[in-house]
Amino acid sequence: MLPSTLLAQGWSTASFERGYVLEGQASDHLDPQRGCDPDVIGRLDHQAQLMPPPGGWPGSPQAVLVANVFAGEVMIAHGQRVTCGLMSDARTRDSRFRSSVGQVVVPAAGNLEPIVVAWQSPIRPEWIPTIMLGGPSPLQQQDTARLLVRAACMAVTLALALSALLGWMASRDRMFLLYTASCVVFFIWQALITGLFGYPYPWLPVGDWAVQWQAATSLMTTALMLAGLWWLCGGLRLLPGSGKVVGRLLQLVLLLSLGAMLLPEAAFSMFAIAPQVLMTLGAVLVVGMALLAQLRGMRDGLLGWLGLAPFLVLVAGELLGARWLVLYRIEALQLVATWLLLITAFAFNRRLGLLREQRDQMQRLADTDGLTGLPNRRVGLQRLGLLIGQAGDRGLLSVGFVDVDHFKAINDTYGHDVGDKVLVEVARVMSESVRSDDVVRMGGEEFLVMLPGVDLAGAQARMQQIGEQLAHIQLRSTAPGLLVTASIGVAQYHPGDVDMTALLRRADQAMYAAKQQGRNQVFAA
To answer: What region holds the GGDEF domain (predicted)?
Structure first.
């Protein structure tokens, strides 16, 4: 049934022949005009009357928008037209307005009756709504701009959460997992304060507890922002023991937030001021830490100030009762929180880069001989096993086992410093003669040279050249007159060899034969 529907509707080209595509059909659906029952009107204890200009209303459509209402019903009334809407459920609002509760009324020309707006008491007395009056088109544009900012902040927060989750999967660093959880809390908080959790219909199961959830998540996000700023400003580096204290405080705030959700709505006027108190006190501590980090020349200081600057502007605006904060409180809160999350994400990505560098450095140290810079025995044998697998039945793989002659005597006569320089020079000569990955320090004064694609005769000639080059090593400043030679055993891989042990044994035996023959020569197995 589904494929036939797609063929008939989705893939049909019949309508293309007319030069356009028609989507949808005529509808008799009416936008919701939700009335206000007496119980709702009884809870609306704040009211504003929008008076007409002198001479009465001009007779043109008037749009009324009520923004920054965090919870509860909003009523807009003029004459016999009375509508109510909830930010928590977009289905109850005029579909032309998405970031606010709005309505369009058309008072008769010369009408002197005011437009009445009523709402419930806000969670905090200073969190007053913003009422906008004007033409439908300009206010709809403002409403759309608010919606874009709110939705963009939520989208960025969600993207940061996913990015941090991938960072945790790559590094298994617990900090990335904590950051992911923090982003989720910020996302839920933004959905609650913007009302987007009710668009296009309620998708967060908060029910009638929206006010409690808003207050609880506001306290959580304030605590998380302060913890992030403390970390950005270098608090954990300057006071290493503060990490546990911050963790315990975050746990306490989480418990208080969840416990406060059980309080009746009437008791939230006291609890709702907790985020502001915490924000003010925390800002003082964080600023002090940022100043201390700056005085000590820590790089954390600059990053901390970048995250702290908009936070301080928000705190100052709150304390001074700034008009712009009253008008755009929700957007300001979102932008400050999102900016902090971005700065923290940058710091986490830098942390991930440092972790990768440390991991790569540790890997190099584990794979490399510290003196000569050559691959060590473990890595060399892995490389040899890979080359044996590639050699196959043709067996075109040879190795040279190199032992520096009289190395103990060099150490005893000239000292271990000269001995180390001899080993470094031997490694340099061989690395310049073949690929550096094919030269391995097996331990002490012994080296292994791998020659893929070379038969026994070719390997013997190549190692003879290396032996002659070793004899030209000179250490005039530290060991004048020192002659460096080596005994070299060469062996070729046989397809019948069970593993690399037989090949290495033949090369080792050939090397000892070269020593027995008088040293400073190449002997083939």
So the answer is: 395-525
Tell me what pLDDT residue 7 has. 47
Residue 441 lies in a domain: yes
What is the rounded CA–CA span in Å between residue 417 and residue 482? 14
Beta-strand relationship, 101-105 and 62-67: antiparallel
> Is residue 13, in this structure, part of any structural domain at all?
no
Q: What is 44-75 written as a DSSP string?
A: --EEEEEPPPTTS--SS-EEEEEE---SSEEE
Domain tally, the chain: 3
**Distance in angstroms (rounded) separating the CA atoms of residues 467 and 473:** 11
Shared domain for 244 and 334, answered yes or no, is: yes
Q: Which two tokens stand for residue 459?
A: 């390997």
pLDDT digits (tens, 9 = 90+) for 294-331: 787 776 667 778 888 888 888 888 888 889 988 999 99
* Rounded distance between C-alpha atoms, residue 272 and residue 269, angstroms: 5
**One domain, residues 202 and 76:** no
User: 186, 341 in Cβ contact below 8 A?
Assistant: yes
Quote the CA–CA distance of 462 and 82 in Å, as a whole number. Answer: 98
- pLDDT tens-digit readout, 72-108: 889 999 988 888 888 888 778 888 888 889 999 999 9
pLDDT of 65 strictly over 90: yes
Contacts of residue 273, defined as CB under 8 A and 6 or more positions apart, other chains included, come to 124
Element spanning 293, H or E: helix 274-295
Angle 96-100-104 from CA coordinates, rounded to 5°: 45
Residue 218 belongs to some domain of the structure:
yes
| Domain co-membership, 159 together with 294 | yes
Contact 162, 148 (CB under 8 A): no
Measured CA angle at 150 (ends 101, 203), to 5 deg: 70
How far apart CA 489 and CA 216 sit, in angstroms, is: 76
Question: Are the C-beta atoms of residues 68 and 128 closer than 8 Å to each other?
Answer: yes
Domain that holds residue 327: 141-363
125 and 155 housed in the same domain = no
- Of the candidates 331, 255, 239, the one whose C-alpha atom is nearest the C-alpha of residue 293 is 239
Give the predicted TM-score (pTM) of the model: 0.70
At residue 338, the 3 state secondary structure works out as helix
Distance CA 92, CA 382 (A): 69
Q: Are both 342 and 383 inside the same structural domain?
A: no
170 in the same domain as 121: no
User: Measured on CA atoms in the order 440, 442, 444, 447, is the torsion positive or negative?
Assistant: negative
